[in-house]
Amino acid sequence: MEKILQDRYVLIENVDMTFNTKKGSFQALKEISLNIREGEFISIIGHSGCGKSTVLNLIAGLLTPTAGHLFCAGREIAQPGPERAVVFQNHSLLPWLTCLENVYLAVERVFANTENKQQLTARSHAALELVGLSHAADKRPHEISGGMKQRVGIARALAMEPKVLLLDEPFGALDALTRAGLQDELMSIMKQSGCTAVMVTHDVDEAVLLSDRIVMMTNGPAATIGEILAVDLARPRKRLELVEDPAYTHLRSEVLKFLYERHAKKAA
Amino acid sequence: MSAVSIEKESIMQKRQDVEKTAAAHPVASVVTLSTTGTIASNPSKAGFAWAATSRRFFEWVLPPVIGLCIFTAIWAVVSARSPGLPGPLLTWHSAVELFKDPFYINNPNDMGIGWNILNSLKRVGLGFAMAAVVGIPAGFLIGRYAFMSNMAAPIISLLKPVSPLAWLPIGLMVFKAADPAAIWVIFITAVWPMIINTAVGVSKVPQDYLNVARVLNLSEWKVFSKILFPYVMPYMMTGVRLSIGTAWLVIVAAEMLTGGVGIGFWVWDEWNNLNVEHIIIAIFIVGIVGLLLEQALMLIARQFSYE
């Protein structure tokens, strides 16, 4: 039983998602099925509008599927919960709270029953330290850079000690150098925490660098999983060494072929 | 040689001018400080500082002064040609006389101008405070819950365009006294902008923030205190500012109808005495007090801005 739970830590079964819009109903996802092992890092990649973020929001519990079921650690996902933390694309920090207060808000909700204020504050500080932002604890979000904001977003998510970390294009809005730095940081954090992660991205290099498996989605409407690519590169992975690695180059070209040959999207 | 010394003198003159204006103008002093050291070697910089100061003077000080002068001139010309309308000078003397003793009390119907202003402010304050107590929570409920919004929409759209003075008879009937009726009218005036602006603010809270609330599984109280309230604050302050403006407009009219002690009643009383100077003074008082109220609220609003 324990073993089955580990192999199917997050379980997505025949999920359909249809949105009711003003112009009628729109089927975004069709028959999505996916098993995610405990501790695994999954990337979902696809062209924009293919419903990657919808999959993530379903796992987060922010959306309810029209058909099919989702489970996390053996329990059906019915609503958002702190065991599934989300790092939002646009960081979504509350601008009137300091970085520490933003993290504290999350910590308080999860641990307030068992810990006192001092311990909660210590926890929040520890989360900020993990992403290297102790010095910015008392700053407001508008006083720090985009990369730092995203790090606070990650700290807020990790501070809840989630079982699953959901990342919605976490580095999409950042410049290439900042992005690379944060990817390296995320890799070492994930190694420390050992939690399961699902990341939506449109960056092929990012997907190959970070993931254990890459889920490639077909184009919408009624998008589904096209292929799943296992990334069997040894960890810890070093960005510079990988560039020379033929296995890395091969994986990268596999994803590119999927995106630009088999499921090319005409420029809108 | 003499040409050089003349130029030097003129630079010194300019420099003194700049320093004079800088003392009066704290913003300009920054510019002056950074240039004084290099003035001798680079006279154009001193010229630049002087130009900046004078430009500020022409942009911000001169136009309002010219505007007020033209206004007073037109007033003087018009009053000179129409008997009965007092000119600026006459009004000024009358105002000086009036403000010599603003807080006298001869009898309940003859009190100093200060008392009249304070009484009007008290009514506005009370009506306004009650409107805030009712309007802001109502705005939150209407903005947060679609059901409440749909329920309140017809009532608000029906009653909002009604002149607040139309509610005065109802107030007089219910409270059987002039003073609470005037406060009631102010309440009605002030409550709509507060409800509407608060509700608009709540309905505009970005979905991202609400998603954060859902993912963090925040309690309804936390959602209110950490997300809704801080986000809505600027909208709320706009509502508050709009309502204090109109409340102050309406109090004059309401007091004309109810009588008692207050700036509106005072205007009517002076009209009955045919004391036109005092009516003109009252117009200025109402204008200035209204301006001060709004500026004060803007100052408070800035304290609550999180940007």
UniProtKB/TrEMBL annotation, chain A:
The organism's place on the tree of life at top rank: Bacteria
Keyword Nucleotide-binding: yes
SUPFAM superfamilies, A to Z: P-loop containing nucleoside triphosphate hydrolases
Chief subcellular location: membrane
SMART domains noted in UniProt: AAA
Keywords per UniProt: ATP-binding, Cell membrane, Membrane, Nucleotide-binding, Transport
Membrane topology: Peripheral membrane protein
Pfam families associated with the record: ABC_tran
Residue stretches making up the ABC transporter domain: 12-244
TM annotation in the entry: none
Family, per entry: Belongs to the ABC transporter superfamily.
The protein's name in its UniProt record: ABC transporter ATP-binding protein
Automatic annotation (TrEMBL), chain B:
Protein's name according to its UniProt entry: Nitrate ABC transporter permease
Pfam families: BPD_transp_1
Keywords tagged on the record: Cell inner membrane, Cell membrane, Ion transport, Membrane, Transmembrane, Transmembrane helix, Transport
Membrane topology, from the record: Multi-pass membrane protein
InterPro entries from the UniProt entry: MetI-like (IPR000515), MetI-like_sf (IPR035906), NtrB (IPR005889)
Source organism, top-level taxon: Bacteria
Transmembrane segments: 57-78, 124-143, 155-175, 181-200, 246-267, 279-301
UniProt domain ABC transmembrane type-1: residue ranges: 117-301
Organism: Methylophilus aquaticus
Primary location group: membrane
Family: Belongs to the binding-protein-dependent transport system permease family.
Protein's cellular compartments: Cell inner membrane; Cell membrane
